Amino acid sequence: MSFTGLRSVVLCLGLLTLPALAADKSVTPYLRPAETKPAPTLMQMLVAALKPKSVHAAEPAHKPRVRPAAAAAKKPKTPPATAATEPPPAQPTTAGATEPPAQSTTVGAAVTPPGPLSETELAAKGLELFNDTSLSGGNKASCATCHFSTGHTNNKTYVGLDVVADGDPNGRNTPTLWGVGERAVFGWAGQAATLEDSIRGIIVNRMKGAEPSQQTLAALVAYVRTLNYPANWQVKEDGTPRPDASAAVKRGYDLYIGDGGCGTCHQLPSFDKKSKDDIGTGGKFKVPTLHAVASTAPYFHDGRTASLRDAVKLMWDVYAKKMDSRLPTEDEVDDLTAYVGAL
C-alpha cells in the first residue's frame, strides 16, 4: 500500500473514533466551561477547512469602490449636436473647486455703452441730422431746406415753413449760418441766448417738430460750428483792408468807421452786436452780421430790400437822422457798398 493510501485509512479511522471521544468523561477537564461557546468539533474544523472561501468574503460590505485614476481622467463624451447651443459644463480645478462657465464674448450696447464721440464724429452726425426731414412735423423739411447742406441761405423769406413775398411784415429772411459760432445772441428777435436754444426753437416752433434730444442738439451745434466764412482776399480778419485791396474798398472802410456810422452797430471784427435796435422796420431786431453779406440778399429781417446798395443807403439815412449828421453822396454809397460787399 502506498503512503497516500495509508494516510487516507488513518484519517477515516480517526473520524470513526470521534463519537467515542465526545462521550468519554476523561476529556471533560479539557473542555471549555458550559457558559462559554463550545469549541468547534474536529468534524466542523475539517468541513470549514475543506469549504472554498469567497474572494470578497473578507471585504467589508460598506467599503467604497475606488475609481482607477485612468478612469477618472477619461475624456468626457462629445455632447450631441442638438446641445451645441448650451453653455459648456463647469470644469473642475486642481483644488477640487468648480470654475464658472466662460462668459459670451459678445458685448451688447446696453452692457457696455459707447464712449463719447469726438468733435469730428459729433459734427458728422450733426450733418446727417441737418439733412434729416424727420426733425420736422410731417417730415416736411430739414434744416438744409432753408440753409442747404453748406449752412448758407436759400435767400428766401418764410412764415413758418411757407415761403412768402420779400417784404412781408410777418416774414423772416433766412440768414446765413456761416460763422454762427462767433455770434453773441441768435434769432432775428434776439430771443435765443445760446446756439442750442436757437436750434431747438427753430425745430419746435418753425418746423413744428418734436422736442429734440440733447444728443441731437449737441450734434447739430457741433456741425454748424464748423461752418466758417469763405476766405476774403481784400479784408483781414480784424476787418481792416489788406494792402492789395481795391481803392474803393479802402475808401469805403474809412466811411464805415467814420461818417457812415456803420461800425456803431456792426462792430468789428464780428460785424454784429448783441443788442437789438429799432431802425424803423417794424420793431427791435437783432443786429445781423455783415460777413458774406453780398450773397445773403434780400436784406433786413423781412427781406424788404433786394440789393446791397439799397440796404447800405437806407442804413446811412437811418444813422444820419438819428445822429443829425450829413447824408452820403452817390460815390460814397458806392465806396461803402464796395467795402461791405468785400466782407
From TrEMBL:
It comes from the Bacteria. Residues 92-103 have a biased composition (Low complexity). InterPro entries: Cyt_c-like_dom, Cyt_c-like_dom_sf, Cytochrome_c_Peroxidase/MauG, Di-haem_cyt_c_peroxidsae. Residues 121-228, 247-343 form the Cytochrome c domain. It is found in: Cell envelope. Keywords: Heme, Iron, Metal-binding, Oxidoreductase, Signal. Residues 1-22 form the signal peptide. Residues 54-113 are annotated as: Disordered. Its main location: other. This is C-type cytochrome.
